[in-house]
Amino acid sequence: MEIINVSYPNDGLGDKLRDSMVKVNDNFNELLGLINSLDLSISGITGLDDALNTISASITGLQSQINTLDSNHTTDISTINSNVITINSSIATINDSIADIINQLEPLLEYNEPETLQTVTNRGMTTSNSITIGGMKIYDSVADFYSEISVNDGVFSVDAYQGRLLNCEYGYFYFKNTDGYLSNISNASLTSNRLYTLPNKSGTFALLDDIVAPTLQSTLLDSNLGTRLTPISSTINGFNLNKSVNGSVGFVVKNTDGTGNGAIASVSVGGTGSYYENGLSLTYYGGGYYIPSLRKTGGLYSTQDFNFLNVNNSKIDFKTGTTISDVTSKFSISGGGTVSIGVTPLTDNSVVKGLARKSNGDLVEFDRTCFFTQVFMHGSVSPLDNTTYYIGNFPDLSPNTSNSITRRIHSQGKGYVSSVSIAINIGGTIGSTENSTFELHNLTQETFVKITSQAVHNTDSLILYTLSSNLNVKEEDELQIRWITPAWVTNPTTVRQRFTIKINIV
């Protein structure tokens, strides 16, 4: 008897279908041969028994032996019949199994076509003789058209009728073109995992020769400035920045981080030496820049002499305004050297220095102080307590207690009063030490300034008082001195006074 190798379900290691059926047929033929031999043996024994019965009648004592032999023969026949029944039962069981196998094979036998992976899976089975576990080879052939998927150590390939279409060996992908030549994709050494997403922006793969070689590389200038771009080739001597086709600005420097020492957007040009030597920067400093005076400001920065160059007799014009559309010229220098100021300078009468141009073109500082004096005075008077006296410039007239036109003078020019000199002469009784107040009034502009509130009349004196604030005057403004007396313990008598004011010309 031959044993059919059924192995384990779906492992593809059992006997093939045809080999299994051959073994089934051989086993059946062997069983049928045994049954035929038993039938012949039984027929021979029965004939022998009949012959012995005939002979025994003529031989004395032989009948008894024959009866014994017949009894034994009957027992053997009974045993044989019992074995035949058992064999028949086994044959019936085998026939049932064969019927089940035939029922499963009917879809395949019906079409009488070669076994493929598809025909196997159509029967609900997941293995086929065309699957090789060693080396993981999956093979399928319909009408002799060839297909194969193979996996070996370090190699993965996809084959077809015309040969290998795809092959992967140790990190390299090979594709077969329609012209039969191979192309491959290789991967450079990586330091970490990388994700490739395809298609790319153009939807294609490009040859290395089709990719323009980069002309810039990153370089670290210092810890504050961080990484910058620098030309790869020493033959690249500069940058040419132009507008794009839609007219947009060709170059933009932008920093969106407004905090920390790096809060700066800057275009910088460096010379020899370290980065900060012989450098020029066009810079905007963010709100977080570490130098407070530079925060939220822009400027030009240079470590060396700085030149503005303009040719073709064109002027240099500095313009400012609220928006770009309303800027106006504030300062300009023409191609011929004429300087124009487009604004009215602020008036600051405290400034006594100015600028002047020497014959060689240098601007120099000069003392612009130019002034004139005007005098107020009055004749002899014995002042009363708590009285205001109005003083002009009548040396023979006493001061008046009413604001009359005779107690005023006209300014002789435009400028500002910065100081007043007061001379006091007491021709009679010396007064006590109570303080008097003197004021200078511009009646035309209705302004005044206090000269002093601590003048005393207990001795002759000459005192120069610098005003706490200047009093502006224009030509022909009406000016006046006012004297406010205290309540003296002892009133001075026969008092004469002279007031000299200094008017700085502007």
Q: How do the helices and strands line up, and which of them pair or pack?
A:
Blueprint: H1 17-56, H2 62-111, H3 117-122, E1 131-132, E2 137-142, E3 145-152, E4 155-160, E5 163-169, E6 172-176, E7 182-185, E8 216-222, E9 226-231, E10 264-269, E11 280-285, E12 297-302, E13 316-320, E14 328-333, E15 339-341, E16 353-357, E17 363-367, E18 371-381, E19 388-391, E20 393-394, E21 409-410, E22 415-426, E23 436-442, E24 447-455, E25 461-473, E26 478-484, E27 495-505
Parallel strand pairs: 18-20
Antiparallel strand pairs: 1-2, 2-3, 3-4, 4-5, 5-6, 6-7, 8-9, 10-11, 11-12, 13-14, 14-15, 16-17, 18-27, 19-26, 21-26, 22-25, 22-27, 23-24, 23-26
In short:
The chain is α+β, with helices and mostly antiparallel strands. It has 3 helices and 27 strands.
